[in-house]
TrEMBL record:
Gene3D superfamilies: Immunoglobulins. InterPro entries: ECM_Regulatory_Proteins (IPR050991), FN3_dom (IPR003961), FN3_sf (IPR036116), Ig-like_dom (IPR007110), Ig-like_dom_sf (IPR036179), Ig-like_fold (IPR013783). PANTHER family: FIBRONECTIN TYPE-III DOMAIN-CONTAINING PROTEIN (PTHR46708:SF2), TENASCIN (PTHR46708). This is Receptor-type tyrosine-protein phosphatase delta. Residues 136-225, 226-308 form the Fibronectin type-III domain. SMART domains: FN3. Keywords: Receptor, Repeat. The keyword Repeat applies. Pfam families: fn3, Ig_3. Residues 64-132 form the Ig-like domain. It comes from Geodia barretti (Barrett's horny sponge).
């Protein structure tokens, strides 16, 4: 997150009072930015605009912006969100020290907007600080594939430029969100899923406090192929022709494996896309055993061995 400080030089040639904004993270580490000065003497020059990289580490998307005014005459603090007055939303106003007239004003914020606290007094003088919260960019090229009977791997391309992205959050049906650290991470495998179930999956990029737009899609987990049904369509002394099907399920590839029953040397057709195959050059004096297998992402189903 980038914190930008601006001083209103048109109405504040010499600010009356020490005005600063601070953001407190969940470890109570304070990010304090001074935007004005009152010391009973001459003014001290402050940069017209200063950019500070904040090192916040909040535990949730919400965090607290605190505006403090110290010393000088009575002050008024005004909050705006995208230039709209939201002073009524502040959580509290606390008089910390009656001697220095230090007031603390806090506001809980989460949405990606420009927030400003403006401190003014009756001299007149005004100082302000603004914090710009921007949603991180979304990951692109998001895909999800089943890579086992109960698992799905989600892959994506990290945003470019990465910006404030610190990780990703994956949400899916029937489970808690999964938070993934690292802006350059580009894949994650969801495990322990239910076969033959359709999952709705969403992924967002995360920064310290905010989320990108979500990419959402559905994927159905397919079961392993069902029972194999193999038929012998023709047979000669040196060849055998087969055809087959499965009782249920999708099939990515088939394979025929055969071997002599008295020897362990196997022969294979290799992956097949069709449902027929002919084995040639068999030894007429040999008895063979063959099986046909069907494979998809969920596993492999073998047929009952056939002797011929």
């Amino acid at each position: 997150m980038v914190v930008r400080l601006k001083r209103n030089t048109a109405t504040d040639p010499a600010a009356e009072g020490i005005y600063h904004c601070k953001v407190m993270d969940n470890t109570e580490t304070e990010q304090r930015i001074y935007v004005g000065l009152y010391n009973g003497g001459g003014d001290i020059t402050i940069s017209e605009e200063l950019t500070v990289e904040s090192d916040l580490n909040a535990a949730s998307p919400q965090f607290t912006l605190t505006c403090v005014s110290t010393g000088g005459p009575a002050t008024t603090v005004t909050w705006t969100r995208d230039n709209v007055n939201i002073t009524g939303e502040q959580n509290e106003t606390v008089l910390n020290d009656p001697v220095t007239a230090q007031y603390t004003h806090t506001l809980t914020i989460a949405a990606a907007r420009v927030y400003m606290c403006m401190v003014s007094n009756n001299k007149p003088s005004t100082a302000s600080a603004s914090i710009t919260l921007e949603d991180p960019p979304s990951p692109t090229d998001v895909t999800a594939v089943q890579d086992g009977p109960t698992s799905i791997t989600v892959t994506w391309t990290p945003p470019s430029p990465l910006g404030d992205t610190t990780g990703y959050r994956i949400s899916f049906t029937g489970s808690s969100d999964v938070d993934i650290d690292g802006g350059f991470t580009n894949s994650y495998t969801l495990t322990g899923l239910t076969n033959e179930h359709t999952y709705t999956i969403s992924i967002v990029a995360t920064s310290e406090h905010l989320f990108s737009d979500a990419t959402t899609f559905e994927i159905a987990l397919v079961p392993a192929p069902g029972q194999m049904l193999v038929s012998v369509s023709s047979i000669t002394a040196t060849s055998i022709s087969l055809s087959w099907s499965v009782s249920s399920g999708r099939v990515a590839s088939w394979e025929v494996v055969w071997r002599p029953t008295d020897r362990g040397t196997e022969s294979t057709s290799g992956p097949l896309s069709g449902t027929t195959y002919t084995i040639h050059h068999l030894d007429p004096s040999t008895i063979y055993t063959l099986t046909v297998s069907a494979t998809n992402v969920a596993g492999t189903t073998d047929s009952t061995p056939i002797l011929f």
